[in-house]
Amino acid sequence: QVQLAESGGGLVQAGGSLTLSCAASGRTFINYYMGWFRQVPGKEREFVASISRGGTRTSYADSVKGRFTISKDNARVTGYLRMDNLKPEDTALYYCAGAAGDGYYTSNNEADFDSWGQGTQVTVSS
Cβ of 66: how many Cβ atoms within 10 Å? Predict the structure, then answer.
């Protein structure tokens, strides 16, 4: 497993943008597919986006499609989530997650991820 640490959260007005980063601890990150999930107090954690280990395949929740972009820089051992046109309903604690995978594999199921960060808070004001 790799250690993951998110950063980049904060307070932003509706319509604004943020980029979250997910720094990994080890070089095996190159073999990891990645995902972003979010959770609001009192609700279950939900899938946001995922990307295959080489970055060639991505998947998005319908609620963020067209507004969020996931990417992965294996040279920098870091993953990113670019969030544009943010809405108040995007307010949540955002987690990055990863797991070793082959080729174009990725997943939107949190049970398929075995490394998790501590989360970074995103708050969108109306």
Answer: 9
Closest CA to 51 of 27, 78, 33: 33
Q: Which amino acid is at 84?
A: D
The predicted-structure confidence for 46-99, as pLDDT tens digits, reads as follows 999 999 999 999 999 999 999 999 999 988 899 999 999 999 999 999 999 999
Determine the Cα–Cα distance for residues 115 and 99; give it in Å rounded to an integer: 6
User: How far apart (Å, rounded) are the C-alpha atoms in residues 61 and 37?
Assistant: 10
What is the number of other CB atoms lying within 10 angstroms of the CB of residue 118? 10
Q: Give me the amino acid identity at 105.
A: Y
Torsion angle of C-alpha atoms 53, 76, 36, 20, degrees rounded to 10: -160
Taking the C-alpha atoms of residue 62 and residue 78, their distance in angstroms, rounded to an integer, is: 24
Number of neighbours of residue 60 by Cβ within 10 angstroms: 19
| Length of the chain, in residues | 126
